[in-house]
Amino acid sequence: MTKGFKRQLIAAFCVLLVGLLMIALYRNFGLEGSTKNRNQLYQQLLERSGQLNRDLPKLLDTQTRFERAEVVDYGMRFIYTLVGVDKYRHDEGAIKAQLQGAMQQAFCSADSLAFYRDHADFLVIRYLDQNEATLFELRFVAADCSA
């Protein structure tokens, strides 16, 4: 090997090493930025749930009471009670079928739910009966609005 070839080989190796180091640093900083964004989202969800919960529980109409909002895994869960429904006397499937379309339409179009469509991973709506037993849950993600 000649001296010129050795220098070129060493230079190429150094360039490769610097490139790999730059890639590793970029990935490390990219993941930290992503983690920071997720932490910020979680904080925003906590703040929104706190603001909502200040005024809850609240009777929305003669049949529905909004109990509370909870943050769950970068998503939000709203808990409602159907005050005139008893889990053991009513058909849960029929009630779910009746509410699902309207709630999906509200999720996809209501301005008050835009933050959850645009930023949260999902929105879950849990319905309880008059005795606070869980009837069912509806889960929506932003992709549900494009279908």
Account of the protein in words:
A 5-stranded mixed beta sheet has the order 1-2-3-4-5. The chain has 3 helices and 5 strands, in the order αβββααββ. The protein has helices at residues 3-54, 92-109, 114-118, and strands spanning 58-59, 64-72, 75-82, 123-128, 134-140. It has one domain: GMP Synthetase, Chain A, domain 3, CATH 3.30.300.250. It is α+β, with helices and mostly antiparallel strands. The termini are far apart. A hairpin with a 2-residue loop joins β2 (64-72) and β3 (75-82).
Main features:
five-stranded mixed beta sheet, alpha+beta, GMP Synthetase, Chain A, domain 3, 147 residues
CATH-assigned fold name: GMP Synthetase, Chain A, domain 3
Series of H and E elements: HEEEHHEE
The CA-CA distance between the termini, in Å, is 65 Å
For the CA atoms, what is the radius of gyration? 26 Å
Q: Largest sheet, described in full?
A: 5 strands, mixed
Sum up the overall morphology in one term: elongated
Mean pLDDT: 87
Q: Spans of 5+ residues with little confidence (pLDDT < 50)? A: none
Number of domains: 1
Q: Order of strands in the sheet with the most strands?
A: 1-2-3-4-5
- How many strands in all? 5
Number of H- or I-type helical stretches: 3
Structural class: alpha+beta
Helix content: 40-55%
CATH domain class name: Alpha Beta
CATH second-level architecture: 2-Layer Sandwich
β-sheet strand percentage: 15-25%
